[in-house]
Amino acid sequence: MARSLVQSKISQALSKVAGDAASENEGLKPGHMRLYSYYQPSLQAGVYGIETLQNITAIAGDDSNAQNQQVYNYTGLVKNPVDAKGLPVIKKQRFSVIAPQFTLDPKLINTYYPPAGHQDEGRVLPHIVFNNPHVPWFREAGLSPWMRTTVDLASDITEPAPVPAKGPKGRNLMPWLALLVFQPEELRVTADEAKLLHLDQMKSWVPTKTPVNNAFAMTVGQYLKDIQSRVYYEAGYQGAADADLDVLKKSPEVTSVIFPLKTQLEAIIHGKNKDFAPLKGQRLLSHVRHINTIGFPDAGVEEEGFFSVVISMMTGNQKEIAPSTHIVHLVSLEHLDATFTNTKSSYFLNSNSDRIGLVSLFAWTYTCIPDAINFEQTMITLADSAQPLRPPKQTLKALLDKSADKTTVDGAVSDALYQRLNSGYTLARWRTPTGEESVAFNRGPLVPMLPQEVPEATNLDKPARQWPSLSMTGKDYAVFDKSIGIMDVTYSSAWSLGKLMAISDSVFNAALMRFRSTVWADAASATRMSANDVQSSTSVLQNAHSVIKIGKAIAGADFSRPVSRINKPVTKTVLTSMDDPDLTTTFRDAIDKAVDHYASAGGAMYNGFDGAGGNSSDWEVILNWIHNVMYLAAIPAHVLFPEPSHLQSHNADDHPKDQPSFHPEALRYFYIDHAWIDAFIDGALSCANHLEPKFDYTRLRIKAVFNHYLGTPVGKTKITPPVPRYGFILRSAVVKSTPDLRLTVTCWKQQTDSQGNKTWIEDPDRDPLVQHTKMDEFTILSLVDCLPEEICVIKFAQPSHQQRFAIEGALTYDLETRLVKAFQTKLVFTRLYTDDNQAPSLTVHDPGDSAPIDADEALMWRELKPQYQVTDQTSFYDLETRCISPVKIAQAANDKLVAWGKDPIYKNNPPYNDTVPNSCELGLELNDHSFQLEIKGVAPKPSNPPFPSWTRKLWIGGLTHTPFIPSVSRVKVQALVKNVNINTGPKVIPKDDIKTAPHNPSTKVTLAPKTLLNTMRAVLTKTSPVADVRFLAPTTLADPFINSSNPAFELLVHPDYRPAPQRPNPDPNGHLINYVYSPLDYIPTKTQSVFDLIFAIRRRSNDKTDLKLQSLTIEVPVSITGTNPDQDDFREPLLVAGDYSGAGIRMCSNARFVPTVENGPASSIGSPSWDSLAVLIIRIAPVSSRADGTTMLLADGKTSEVSVRLAQLPLVQTIDTSSTALVAQGKDASGTPQNAQMPRGRCLIRMSEQYGDDRTDEWSWCVALKVDTGDKDPEGNVI
How far is the C-alpha of 552 from the C-alpha of 263, rounded, in Å? Predict the structure, then answer.
């Protein structure tokens, strides 16, 4: 799991805050380990019996009347049988404990050294590490007492025994496994030998082909029945267990068998004195290490690990002066003692064969060379070649040199290419929307330089303020680099990849679809109830008593007379469609509440650590998936590293052909591009969107809620969910040889002393490492939640259980033949400590040593003095058999440690007081030198302020799309524009020819009664048209603002960078001057840049579906020279007079209509005052196949919106500066809505509807309010 390390840290913090009890191993600090000589299972493999005996005592009265009854597991004819001694005969219930015997599950293996195919020195002792601490002791190694039970080194006396003061006894247990090292020719079986062994009867025997690792595959039954020289397994199946042996001889389980020479096996097992001294030494070559795994790759699930280690007693052949192949076999030692001592063994019975078959449980090969590349040299090379994640320095330098002269074409192109490649980009093949094949820039989420929150506006066609908060197709994230004319598809490809990965994850995709459906259903239901004044079931039940009471009160009323009505009944309109603009705000508020509800747990934000779980299991899946993506989960490796050269320390083309090409060694640093991650997540969340095809507000709310999750501390801790910002990747052969490479990262911390001086020190409590995982056997990826300037030190170190073992010494050569003559052992024993209080630390050092000069020296365990002479170590290693003597080395080490502890300076309190040689002690002394790579950061200046806190947020700003009216259409319809000079329009009617309209509202207008359903519409019905409908000066408006009898469409006008405002709240009496407008319902006239106007046209909610629409006409007033508010025919203009030269007009989304624009006079509206005024006319005609050019207005959604976009309009400032409008100001403390008159210029825009079949045209009015100021978009960017 990507976040297992982080979740482990947060769980610890929660436990600490809650005061939970600490574990028994809490003292195991990071980087520390605890060793065990053995870790025997409670029950080793074998057959066991359970004896059950229960005593039942019944007491009646005093104890003298007590009755006793024994119950035990026995079945037979005799009641309560007893043996000769009078003891109950108990029948044992047999059961078997199963453990590996002839095969071993590879999953049990953690690692082994040297790795397969690796090269290392001949003095190295191969070892293998198991994930299970019991593996070396799963089975009893043999029947001899020293093979079955725990014993001391000095003798074969078994425990139990009293624990002496000097140290416990019985400290060593024989494992059933051992590592043996062979050269291929030592295991090569000839045809004659195969015939004697009956190996030629096996399918794996091919005379001309040697099997892998020289191990032959066969079934267990074939091995036990057919192989003539093998281990005497019959020794462990005597008596009743003989039946189990018969079962094994029929077993089809496949095992691997090697056939070493008997003489070689005798030397390394039986010994020269045939006393099993080498075999007994195996007790000292297996031990268990209990390790704190913090800093290991993929640590966090289990913070402490138990690993069993088996060390080989054999080295490689050090006599070889050229590299040579060696095979390491993990063989079974089971019953080898009986094989060499029992005369029934085939070892004696088949003396004709020089070889014997051993069961091999695992094997690998490595190359033994005189001088190997070790950990130290490799890490130094990595540190020297470390760089940010970009092409190699040599490649970039060559390109930079070529771009020195930027005045030439090649120099300018090279410079532009250098800038992109230096920023981590690669060139990718790209196909344009029109099909041409081209090239584009691309990069993944890992970049070499600190990225911006959103891409900058430099040389790009998208400024930061326009960076979209979401995209419906991903094309909005494509960026065009104008400097070199190449498209940058980094973020658009991230969006597409996110959608692809989400679709391929069936669990996430299904959860997202269910979550969307649930949220939309709940929000739609709540919106309809609110808009239509429908009470909830809870409210109905609460008011049921009062309703029943009222019903009883009017039960006796007389309704014989006709009901008096003031007005005739009206048709009540019920709002049901969520596309209705009046419901936009309400519906979005309902979506917010629904998402918030399902993202909660127990009244708070769900964070993954709530014991009861969240309100929605689908939200848990969505939350975890998004957060894991921030840890680079679900992102393929070829996207993380799109260019292989980024992980190469050299140019492959420049590598000498006569030299071997080893695995690339690279240490690369990178930042995480959060804009790329945002685009990826946006693409993923766009899946399963079946209900909001125009603007996905649910997706936007999901991201907003996730941002709240990232900024909310978990529980009572002060920890917010961490998110990686920086990281590094290590790709090296060291990773394969040391897969649990330990990583430690610390940060700087500013402290102030008593004098007020500020310094920067290493912060021991700040652990920025949030992920440390293996991507493959050569690669480790590490992520931290800080920036590089905050890092104090990065340490790569060999883990305690994967440090190699070796025998120290030097080879001596024959001066004449230059061949190896001897090996001089030069073991250097190290101080060990059994007293924690005397172990070296930052505050404690040995009294016999000088004070340490730094922290590293203070923690060092130094060498013992004096050491053994070379002449005293001749028996430690045998060059001929390539075997060490574990018993002699362990005894010598223990003697030296005990003697050191008796030094008078310790005052009878020795640092090491264990007098029993054991495998832990030997394992530590055979450990080769341990190295670590430290990369130290530069300390900030003392005057620098502390590093600021940072909270990750998904980008939800830069909202440039109008809901339901996308700003980018797939097909751009070029408008038919007539460039007409407005100043040459029709003649203005003189003021004297215009009659004055009455100041009072007309009495011929009948207002509609107030409906019980809140339709939120500014529509007033009338019984008959009113002649000579006019308006006085805007400041003295008195006549009602009246539409035709039944228009089918309505109009709102707003700028393109802001969503459509809510409709104005109409005055109950129909007076325009009393309409209440939204605070954002205005058009600015003094902006820094030109913007587009959206004429949002929507179908009204009515029952008419039989109309044939011929066209829609919108008349926008324009300014005319010499006009002023004092004229009777004054009409506040919206657009500047003159030829329109903008980018044209186009439909927003409905391609079933075509718009055109032209200049012309205003149409008659019942009064001659405005008939001659110039307007900009927008005509919208349907694409129709009918002869009359009409389209039917059906309830199929095809004509639900006919919105158009008029691009780059020059707006005129307000002429009548005294004009005002009533603007909503929120609610006061009592909840009463408050309004205020605000300066606004009113532009009256008329929309008429033309129909076929000789129907009367309909018309409606829209008021566009102007403000003579600048403006900002919803994200605060200046327009």
Answer: 113
Q: What is the mean pLDDT of each run of 10 residues along the chain (1279 residues)?
A: 66 64 54 84 84 79 72 62 70 82 92 86 92 92 83 51 47 92 94 92 89 92 93 85 85 94 90 85 92 64 76 91 91 92 84 89 90 66 85 83 77 83 90 87 93 64 64 88 84 95 95 95 90 79 79 62 54 67 82 91 80 83 94 92 77 47 75 95 94 88 92 84 93 78 89 88 89 87 93 84 81 74 86 86 80 74 85 89 92 92 88 89 86 86 90 74 28 29 32 36 30 28 31 36 80 89 72 77 89 91 76 89 66 80 85 90 64 84 88 85 89 88 83 86 90 84 90 80
Residue 462 resides in a domain: no
Residues 6+ apart with CB under 8 A from 944: 750
State the Cα–Cα distance between residues 38 and 134, nearest whole angstrom.
8
Describe the crossing of helices 490-504 and 506-531 by its angle, rounded to 10 degrees.
100
Domain boundaries, position 333: 96-154+168-372
Sequence-distant (6+) residues with CB within 8 A of 1184 are 1190, 1191
User: Are 599 and 606 within 8 A, CB to CB?
Assistant: yes
Count of other CB atoms within 10 angstroms of residue 436: 8
What is the secondary structure of 1170-1198 as a DSSP string? STT-EEEEEEEEE---STT--EE--TTST
Q: Which two tokens stand for residue 328?
A: 């390491």
Final residue before a domain boundary, out of 896, 927, 958: 927
Domain co-membership, 130 together with 274: yes
State the Cα–Cα distance between residues 477 and 492, nearest whole angstrom.
Answer: 5
- How do beta strands 820-825 and 877-878 pair? unpaired
CA distances from 337 to 10, 174, 271 (A): 53, 12, 12
Which residues are bridge partners to 916 per DSSP? none
> Do 1062 and 1203 reside in the same domain of the chain?
yes
Q: Domain for residue 824, yes or no?
A: yes
Q: Is 781 helix (H, G, I), strand (E, B) or coil?
A: strand
Q: Within its chain, how far is the Cα of 1034 from the centroid?
A: 60
Residue for token pair 């091919």: 206
Q: What is the pLDDT of residue 853?
A: 73
Q: Tell me, what CATH number does 1065's domain have?
A: 2.60.40
What is the C-alpha R_g of the chain?
Answer: 44
> Same structural domain for residues 920 and 1065?
no
- Residue 923 forms part of a structural domain: yes
- Look at residue 745 and tell me if it is in a domain: no
Are 920 and 1066 members of one domain? no
SS3 75: coil
- State the DSSP H helix or E strand holding residue 29, giving kind and residue range, or none if neither: none
544 Cβ contact partners less than 8 Å away, ≥ 6 residues apart: none
Is the N-terminal amide bond of 114 cis, ω within 30° of 0? yes
The pTM score is 0.61
Counting the structural domains of the chain, the total is 3
1054 and 923 in a single domain? The answer is no
The whole-number pLDDT of residue 313 equals 95
The answer to whether 258 and 214 have CB atoms below 8 angstroms apart is yes
Query: Measured between alpha carbons, how far is 869 from 922 in angstroms, rounded to an integer?
Result: 19
CA distance 981 to 1032: 28
> Rounded CA gap, 680 and 701, in Å?
17
What's the angle, vertex CA 1072, arms to CA 1067 and CA 1078, rounded to 5? 70
Of 222, 227, 230, the residue nearest 195 (C-alpha): 227
821: helix, coil or strand?
Answer: strand
Last residue of a domain, one of 355, 372, 389: 372
Query: Cβ distance 985 to 1159 under 8 Å?
Result: yes
Give the pair of three-digit tokens for residue 562: 């006709």
Angle, vertex CA 403, rays to CA 400 and CA 404, nearest 5:
95
CA distances from 226 to 192, 197, 343, 357 (A): 16, 8, 19, 11
Tell me if 1040 sits within 8 A of 1189, measured CB to CB: no
SS3 category, 1270: coil
